[in-house]
Design a protein that fits this description.
The complex is a heterotrimer of chains A (238), B (240) and C (311). By secondary structure, chain A is an all-alpha fold. Chain A has a single domain, classed as MetI-like fold. Chain A has 10 helices and 2 strands, in the order H-E-E-H-H-H-H-H-H-H-H-H. The radius of gyration of chain A is 22 Å and the shape is elongated. Helix content of chain B is 67%, strand content 0%. The longest helix of chain B has 31 residues. Chain B has one domain: MetI-like fold, CATH 1.10.3720. With 240 residues, chain B is mostly helical. Chain B starts with 31 loop residues before the first helix and ends in an 8-residue tail after the last helix. The chains are: A mainly alpha (238), B mainly alpha (240), C alpha/beta (311).
């Protein structure tokens, strides 16, 4: 298929904009698609799936990374997890899950969490390991328990690295949530994947909305990171 | 030649007996027999996949490396470059494919542009960090010996930043191999075309083979880059 | 010196990039033709399910062996998407079912679709001509939409004909392609002519048997030429007693422009290569892709060999 001329491109953006706000007849005729109602539903689903998966991933990977990092055990596993996770082709994971395990929200969240856990685990581990050992020694000297050391000394100092992992995980998860329609869960990605139904305008609208959602979530997480980073570290970085 | 071609009726041998069932008919998880008979259909997609990955990582490296050198010289550029590449990194590739749709249409070029965009922040960040981690004592010494900025950069700072740069390349390459499976959505071919066959994503053996090839490819590239890094930086301690 | 090694690394990346761009500069779906009398470039399209993709491959490879330069743009989408591509000149032609063309494009009621293939072809040819398109003579085989279910379910409900579903359809779930809702030879026809009102979920055509297997669908829209129907007794199709789902032979739709440029061998090749496609043959080819999981292009090549079109 040849690339359409650039001028037509602007027209298409206009169509996409229109698609978001007004219901229109589907490419296949008859049914109405588009409009804020449907788009809102799809966006809400994408958000729901992303938040759930990210939550599960953090819940599982963060404590594991903290403990392994603090006690210095399991370095190979923790670091390799990051490398291994990166190599998983998300399309294959979703497809295999859909056909071998079954469709449904639970399975999808599990698959997404699988993609989200490695970066969080690795970054948490590395972040904790890189904490200045003299700070940890001082804390031990003050008689802090392991738990206190982790939560009051190591965790705050490792926040930038850990949040880096969380943000990477969220990028993976959002990207995969976009192809979730292949597994039967209709997210914003359906606008992109089902060109048949939504037409080129819908596809472009979907692409724009997904990009916007991803950027917004990233922005939010960056804000969270800013809030959580101890003042001393912030000063050090600038 | 159309003259002299006459379609003959097809004889009965052509029709296969499928009453026996079997691994493929039942769509069991993995059917080695089928793989042995049909592995050649994966050759083209694998080659396409290689092209996608190599082009994207190479282009990404050239662009990100140049940006990092620029930012090294003019520190104020660091933040905007980081932010810019960051946005490109954040946008999901499949979304990117279709944002490019009105401009570059559907095809391998669109896929490569999107994949390249994804690698930029990783490589930029690693090159920048690598350069920044060069000890100031070393740069002092270099200047002391009379090296120009350019000589300092290419003969001292960059070689010392190698481990970090290679690490960035490794991350970028492995990620790109996995991501390139999505190129099928942009009509760009690759192994994704064997995962979504037509529009059918239910063929378990096919998915496993295609996904497996991608993972193996990623591991191989990672190993190659790791060894390349060791070769280029004999003085550095074992990299990550 | 390490700076030299660094430069080599850069050089390597530039080479990789150049290699990549050159390799993908050519469309990844193009093929080169052998030399021959006919010349010109054709792009063959198809709709988005197995039978269509196989047909597209057969036509494409046949034209190639005759001497044309052929590109394929298969798996376009539903009939409206394919028609749009044809009208826009993105493809030279694609195979369409006469029944679909008449009911979807030219607003013919299903009962007005002629049962006789030659009559049906004459009708679609006339309609297409009015529309600025050319229809080539039809294939030997015909295919129709069908309402299918698991044999076990059909026995459970005691249904053998579609009209048997009357009264119980509201509790049943029908899966069909997204465009099924608007097609008179699909859900719309079932609603208007049989008075049925099943719940409907749109699904990708490629999954029409999956959804029955998984129990998600009670009813699914199948095709009479489907491989899976012949392979076992697991699935059964309900008899279309009111004749709402007409069968259609396939006609290759193209434009006069393409014909003028391509010459007489264009139509000759299409007609010749399709003459071996009986229902039995088409089912076998569909089976090779859907059941044996072979590649459509390989299956098409096998057909061309077995029928004597190529060596």
């Amino acid at each position: 298929m040849t690339a359409p001329p650039l001028a037509a491109g602007f027209g298409l953006f206009g169509d996409a904009f229109n698609f978001v706000f007004n219901k229109q007849e589907a490419e296949t005729g008859g049914v109405l698609v588009g409009g804020l109602g449907q788009i809102g539903e799809l966006a809400a689903k994408q958000l729901e799936v992303t938040v759930l998966a990210l939550g599960v991933a953090i819940l599982l990977a963060l404590p594991a990374g903290l403990l392994l990092g603090h006690f210095g055990k399991g370095e190979f596993v923790a670091v390799s997890a990051g490398n291994a996770g990166r190599a998983i082709p998300e399309l294959a994971l979703i497809a295999l899950m859909a056909t071998a395990v079954g469709v449904g929200l639970f399975n999808l969240v599990v698959a997404l969490a699988i993609l989200g856990i490695p970066p969080i685990l690795t970054n948490t581990f590395v972040g904790i390991r890189q904490v200045d050992s003299s700070s940890v020694e001082a804390a031990k000297g003050m008689g802090m328990t392991n738990r206190e050391i982790i939560t009051k000394v190591e965790l705050p100092l490792a926040i930038p690295t850990i949040m880096g992992g969380v943000r990477t995980a969220s990028i993976n998860i959002i990207a995969t949530a976009t192809i979730a329609p292949l597994a039967g869960i209709l997210t914003l990605g359906d606008l992109i994947i089902s060109r048949n139904v939504y037409g080129d305008a819908g596809v472009l609208a979907g692409a724009i909305l997904v990009a916007l959602m991803a950027i917004t979530i990233e922005g939010l997480l960056a804000g969270v990171q800013w809030r959580l980073t101890p003042r001393g570290l912030k000063l050090q970085r600038s | 030649m159309i003259d002299g071609i006459a379609i003959a009726a097809i004889d009965d041998e052509f029709f296969r007996d499928r009453s026996g069932g079997g691994c493929i008919q039942e769509n069991r998880l993995f059917c080695p027999g089928w793989v042995a008979d049909n592995y050649d259909r994966y050759v083209d997609p694998t080659l396409q996949h290689l092209v996608l990955v190599l082009s994207s990582v190479a282009a990404g490296f050239i662009i990100a490396f140049s940006l990092a050198i620029l930012a090294h010289r003019h520190r104020w550029l660091s933040s905007p470059f980081l932010a810019g590449t960051g946005i490109l990194y954040t946008i999901p590739s499949i979304s990117f494919f279709f944002l490019l749709l009105p401009i570059t249409g559907r095809g391998a070029v669109t896929a490569i542009i999107a994949l390249t965009a994804f690698t930029l922040q990783i490589i930029f960040r690693n090159v920048t960090t690598g350069l920044r981690n060069v000890s100031p004592d070393v740069t002092e010494a270099g200047r002391g010996v009379g090296l120009t900025s350019k000589q300092l950069l290419w003969q001292v700072e960059l070689p010392l930043a190698m481990p970090e740069i290679i690490a960035g390349l490794r991350i970028a390459t492995v990620s790109t191999v996995a991501l390139a499976t999505l190129a099928v959505f942009a009509n760009g071919g690759g192994l994704g075309a064997e995962i979504i066959v037509g529009s059918n994503i239910t063929f378990k053996t096919g998915i496993i083979v295609a996904g497996g090839i991608a993972v193996v490819m990623a591991v191989l590239f990672d190993a190659i880059l790791l060894l390349t890094g060791k070769y280029l930086t004999p003085w550095a301690k074992a990299a990550r | 010196m390490s700076s030299r090694k660094l430069k080599y690394l850069l050089l390597l990346s530039i080479c990789a990039l150049a290699f990549g761009l050159v390799a993908c500069g050519s469309d990844n779906s193009s093929d080169d033709s052998s030399t021959g009398d006919a010349s010109g470039e054709l792009t063959i399209g198809s709709k988005n399910f197995t039978e269509q993709i196989v047909l597209g491959e057969i036509y494409a490879q046949a034209l190639e062996s005759t001497g044309y330069t052929v590109k394929t743009d298969l798996n376009l989408g539903s009939e409206t998407v394919a028609l749009k591509a044809l009208r826009a000149g993105e493809i030279s032609g694609y195979p369409e079912y006469i029944s679909t063309a008449l009911t979807s494009f030219y607003k013919t009621a299903p009962e007005d679709v002629p049962g006789d293939p030659d009559e049906a072809f004459a009708k679609v040819k006339a309609e297409a001509a009015k529309d600025g398109l050319v229809a080539f003579p039809q294939t030997p085989f015909a295919s129709a939409n069908a309402v299918g279910m698991l044999t076990s379910k059909a026995e459970e409900l005691g249904v053998t004909k579609i009209s048997d579903l009357e009264g119980q359809s509201e509790d049943l779930m029908l899966y069909g392609s997204p465009e099924c809702r608007q097609r008179i030879d699909c859900l719309l026809g079932l609603q208007e002519n049989y008075g049925l009102d099943p719940q409907f979920t749109p699904v990708d055509i490629g999954l029409r048997y999956e959804v029955l297997d998984k129990g998600q669908a009670d009813l699914s829209i199948l095709f009479t030429t489907d491989a899976q129907l012949g392979a076992s007794d697991k699935y059964t199709i309900l008899e279309d007693d009111l004749g709402v789902l007409p069968a259609g032979n396939v006609t290759f739709l193209t434009t006069q422009e393409v014909i003028d440029e391509a010459g007489p061998q264009y139509q000759e090749t299409i007609e010749e290569v399709q003459s071996g496609l009986t229902v039995k043959v088409m089912q076998e080819l569909d089976a090779r892709v859907d059941i044996d999981k072979e590649e459509a292009s390989a299956v098409a090549a096998d057909y061309l060999k077995a029928s004597g079109f190529t060596e």
